[in-house]
Fold this protein.
Amino acid sequence: MHHIENDLHYTGLSVAQGIASPPAVNPYLKKRKHRHEFTAAEYIEQILKGNITVLSQAVTLVESQKNEHQALAQEVIEKCLPYSGHSVRIGITGVPGAGKSTSIDVFGMHLIRDRGKKLAVLAIDPSSERSKGSILGDKTRMEDISREPSAFIRPSPSAGSLGGVARKTHETIILCEAAGFDTVFVETVGVGQSETAVHSMVDFFLLIQVPGTGDELQGIKRGIMEMADGIIVNKADGTNIDRANLSAAQYRNALHLFPLPPSGWSPKVLTYSAKNKTGITEIWDMVYEYIAFVKENGYFNSNHHSQAKFWMYSSINEQLKNHFYHSSEIEKELKIKEQQVLNAEISSFMAAKQMLDLYFRQKS
Ligand code: GDP
């Protein structure tokens, strides 16, 4: 074959003659073994040994949308259940900029280095679907603990509804506990609905605030304050110290107006600085004081029971809803009914009843 590249006047690279062109597909590739797919028993064995790589893979299964992954994940979770429930689970919330990542890094180092804990950091961030990639639980935000072998950091599951994302995080907690993590953080942004979900899976709910001008609640809804077992005012450093103390006093006053929560524990308010690492020990003394208190009065266990019940019903609701809305006939008919409701041809209640009748007729 004539190649112009090999002509005398051509100054570029020449084409080697006489070498057969290699096949497009490397013949050895086919012989390479696929990555070993673990069975449920193998997952469990490795998780119980504290194998972080396998734990990570199991969490990926939990987060997968594929049915076969879900089935395997459920088997693994079920077998891990007897080994779960023994950690201290802490929900951490606060508006963006309050200092959640800085604090988690500092808290994590304190717990690992000074209290010998093994820490898993998870997150619930339902907005991550839109932003394609979670802003919470990102390793680069927690530089110190991300280098610690005793820390496991996992960003928020990204796809799906808040209910779905929260369920996956709840299941991930179980896997982490089976892998020997005795402390679990669940982080969330304190601006939406996700706090309620986090509250339903933790033992202690920590609200991070920053010194404000005094009278505003920094975008934190009253309901979130009511859920808090501890409010910690961050950035109590430099010229902020007085304002931090003032904010803390105001939160204490505000908390007095709320009824005593079912735990019987009066929420405490503390100030600290994540930047200067001051007031950190006091925060964790408070958390462990609470844990001892609720273990003593039985609330620790009764709360776990009501949380387990809550998640059962929440899963039923989620699956019923998914099944209903993903049925193709329902989808078609919904559009028609919607229009009829808009045209005032049928009442909203009647339309809903007819849709449900159709759904249950299909099922029977
Ligand atoms: P997040 O959005 O809640 O995760 O907040 P970050 O941890 O990213 O912190 C937001 C900003 O507050 C960053 O610029 C931090 O450096 C700063 N910050 C965090 N903790 C402190 C603190 O204790 N004191 C001061 N002065 N700044 C802090």
In short: Residues 129-133 have pLDDT under 50 and may be disordered. The first strand starts at residue 88 and ends at 94.
